[in-house]
Amino acid sequence: MARQLIQKCKICGVYSYKLECPKCGGTSQAAAPLKWTPEDSQAHRRRKLNDVGSDAWNESLPSLTEEE
Ligand SMILES: [Zn+2]
Questions:
Q1: CB neighbours (10 Å) of residue 9?
Q2: Ligand 1 centroid distance, CA of 25 (Å)
Q3: In what order do the strands lie in the sheet with 7-9?
Q4: 14 C-alpha vs ligand 1 centroid, how far in Å?
Q5: What is the distance, to the nearest Å, from the Cα of residue 52 to the centroid of all Cα atoms in its chain?
């Protein structure tokens, strides 16, 4: 597994970039990666925010004919 930049102290839980905890001097190890999912759980809110499907939204879309 690739080495992570963010380290977390095994004793006090402080996050740092160093392998030695700046607070208690304990050993730090790579923090667990952030949870990530390819599914966009906020997609319905994003579409509502941009008013997708309306005439204004349709006009804002780029078209190829303008390039020529
Ligand atoms: Zn510590």
A1: 22
A2: 6
A3: 15-16, 7-9, 28-30
A4: 5
A5: 24
